[in-house]
Each structure stands twice: as C-alpha cells, then as structure tokens.
Amino acid sequence: MGHATFKIGDLEAVIGDNADHEGHRAGYNGIWSLRHKRSKRNLFVPAYAGFNLEHYFNGETEFLNNEVFFQPRKFPMTFDKKSDREAELKQKPVPHFFLESTTKFTLREPHYLDVEFRCSPVQHAHPSGWFGCFWASYVNGPVDKSMHFRGGWNKGDDQWMQLCTQKHDDESTVSHFDDQLKLEFLEGSRDALFKNHSPMRFSKPFYYGYFEDLVYVIMFDRSEGIRFTHSPSGGGKNREEKTVNPAWDFQFITPKYEVLKDYGFKARIVLRPRCSRLEILDEYEKFAKG
User: Fold this and answer.
1) pTM, 2 dp
2) pLDDT (tens digit, 9 = 90+) per residue, 83-111?
3) Measured in whole angstroms, how far is the alpha carbon of residue 154 from the centre of its chain?
4) For residue 24, what are the contacts with CB-CB under 8 A and spacing of at least 6?
5) Which of 50, 106, 178, 185 could form a disulfide with 114 if both were Cys (CB 3.0 to 4.6 A apart)?
C-alpha cells in the first residue's frame, strides 16, 4: 500500500509515497489531497501534492542532472499506515546526497495535520559542510496566489507582510531576521527557487494563504534553518480555474552537520474557515507553547 485516506474532525487527507495512482502522478509524495468538510475541491493540485519532499541541495551536487535535482521525488519511499490518524513515510539514503529521512503525519481534531521530519546524513557527501531540504506545496488555483506572514524589511519589524512573486525564481525565498547564512552555489549552475532571495524577512515561523473560503496555515517549531519560498506558477496551469497554480514552499537548512546525527523539525498545518489575522496569530501562539 503506497497511500491511505484519513478522516479526522473536519479534515480528509490522503497521505502517500512517490508512486502513481489513478490521477496522481509518480514522483510526488506527502499530502496527495487535503480537504476541509467545506471544500469544493482538493487544496493541492490533484496530480501533484503538498508537503512534497522535492530537493536536497548542497550548492553543487544537485546540478549534476535533472534526476539528481529532484532526487527525493525519484528515489523510492515506503509508506506505513500507523493508525486511523497516523502515517509515516521513510526513504533510505538517496544516492549522491546520502541522506535518509522519516516523515510522520498525524491528523488532530478539529482541523490540524501535524508533521515531524527527521533526516540523517550517512556519509560526508556535502563538500561545503551544509545541506538543504526543500518541500513544495502545489496549490490548486487559488484566486489569491500570495503567502502572508509576520516580519518586515528591518530587524525588529513584526508586521503583516504579503509575498506574491512576479515570476518563477524571482526574489522567491524569505529568511528569518537572524538567518545570516549565505550559501555558495556552483558557478554557472541552473537557477532555482532556493538561490533567489527577497529583501523581506520573517519574524515568526509561520505563513498562510487563502483558498476558497478557507485559510491554509503552516507553522514551524523553530525559525533556525527555516526559509519560506514562493512561486506564482510552480504548479503549472490550471485549466479548470483558468489560472495558474502557485507553489507555497519552504526549506530547511542545516549549516553544519555530523554524520549519523538526526536533524529536523516539527510543523503544524491548519485548514479552517477564513478568520481574522488575530485568530491566525492565536493558532500559532498555541502551537508555539506546545
């Protein structure tokens, strides 16, 4: 079994591996489908996925070829349904990057999907001493393509910000105010969302976007290593809605690593009816307090 459907509270989710199934294309893992009881359609592009582990990168290896650039999508995963609300994806160490990973998904009432990601380098395979992981969420033709978050342009800012890039690979990545890590990439290598940076910074590790009459929020248990990433058209054209599918993505950077040591984070996804920004902030504060 490469996937399963879970119904808890107001949410219905399909969690799956990299396999294809009916309209779902091979190479897209994570949350194949996410619906609220008020949804008219899947939040994520049905052929693709949300929380899709898409890239590993270290500034050099990912540029060998397209197969390596999308290696987490290409290399097999195993799916395990743990209970009526829990699932787990595992991937053995991938070639070239030598990273193994485990991702746990847990649905909670009334409208939460909690995720825990852990990875471990099993060899010294990153010449610059750092590595990054990248997740893509292809959103199913929302009217508003924007990601909203708290932050600003100058340290100390903590206001509501809105990011909607004008084209793919254009000022696409937002880092935390304390994130001063400058990553070096192979000279002359292909462009990528994780290579381009916005002048904006975030102050709290969460962002949200609007879908139908719902709000989708993703929040993290840390700011260290987390970077937000946006593409206005990463999910291609949406013929039904006569628009494009944005990608509301994120990264996790490990600036220094040790072999066989675990690295990771916890995240919470919220899909609920639209509410005030104060209520969204309250959702984050409750999550941050544990």
Assistant:
1) 0.97
2) 999 999 999 999 999 999 999 999 999 99
3) 25
4) 3, 16, 32, 46, 47, 48, 49
5) 106
